[in-house]
Specification:
Low-confidence stretches: none
CATH architecture of the largest domain: Sandwich
Largest sheet: 8 strands, antiparallel
Number of helices: 8
Oligomer: single chain
Radius of gyration: 20 Å
Helix content: 25-40%
CATH class of the largest domain: Mainly Beta
CATH superfamily of the largest domain: B-lactam Antibiotic, Isopenicillin N Synthase, Chain
């Protein structure tokens, strides 16, 4: 299968591979800087923070992407001056750049399912992710599919679609996140990627089977079903579902269950309630 229009793709790996060791060396040089909590406080649990490398001049919150501002309103932050390889990586993109940030999701933290409606082909602005440090237990779900993003790779992600992240590992996840204006060069890069490769998706942990098997177990066990039906508060229901799943040998998180409920709300309610 090939795509004629990159706007049809939820993700595309672009033909750029950056040196993970050099990315990580620049990251180490700025870890002592003050990182700010992400401004969308309702979107996450745990620690999701960032450091602006390029931001709107004079912004109160330089971490904010400030998509409504023109490209000319953005300027490199002083901290970028000490990061030679970050600057080299950014120079790869032959298109106007707006916000550029380092975003860190600490171990044990989650980003809840949401969509970024300010991004997209129709708005002329897209977001690129370059993983700097990650681990196999980071789970990124985009449009219901798990996407594995490896250190040094370069990915276009259509974040106007529903997406969520959970860092179930013991180490932090840090990405270089670049907001790009969709000019002719970038359109050409995306079109070539769409025409020559199927977007790569992975599902190393069979989440769908995990939840479906657990659902079948609950429906066959009146005692388990009764334990879940007594919870009328959604958050308590989600927590109890995860506890019962773990007790019966299943592995899924509150956000896994929440996302499944939202995707199949009517079917789940008819079966469980």
């Amino acid at each position: 299968m090939r795509y004629s229009d990159p706007a049809d793709c939820s993700c595309l790996r672009l033909p750029f591979d950056f040196n993970p060791q050099r990315l990580q060396a620049d990251l180490q040089s700025v870890l002592g800087q003050p990182w700010s909590p992400h401004f969308n406080r309702d979107y996450y649990e745990g620690d999701w923070s960032g450091l602006a490398l390029r931001a709107v001049k004079g912004a109160v919150d330089p971490l904010h992407s400030n998509e409504q501002h023109s490209t000319e309103s953005f300027a490199d932050a002083p901290v970028l001056g000490r990061c030679e390889y970050f600057r080299e990586a950014l120079a790869t993109f032959q298109c106007p750049l707006k916000a550029v940030r380092l975003l860190r999701l600490k171990a044990g933290s989650i980003i809840k399912e949401h969509s970024d409606g300010d991004l997209g082909f129709d708005r002329g602005e897209i977001r690129i992710h370059v993983p700097i440090v990650t681990n196999p237990e980071v789970e990124f779900y985009l449009a219901g599919e798990r996407i594995v993003l490896n250190e040094g790779e370069c990915w276009y992600l259509d974040l106007s679609r529903l997406h969520r992240v959970q860092n179930l590992g013991a180490s932090d996840r840090v990405h270089l996140v670049i907001d790009c204006v969709l000019n002719d060069w970038m359109r050409s890069m995306l079109s070539e990627a769409a025409a020559t490769a199927v977007p790569i998706t992975h599902r190393p942990r069979n989440l769908a089977a995990n939840l479906e098997d657990f659902t079948e177990l609950v429906l066959e066990d009146p005692a388990l079903l009764a334990q879940l039906r007594r919870f009328t508060d959604m958050e308590e229901f989600l927590q109890q579902t995860v506890r019962l799943g773990k007790a019966n040998g299943f592995r899924f998180t509150v956000e896994d269950v929440r996302s499944a409920l939202q995707a199949n709300r009517r079917a789940w309610i008819e079966r469980w309630v």
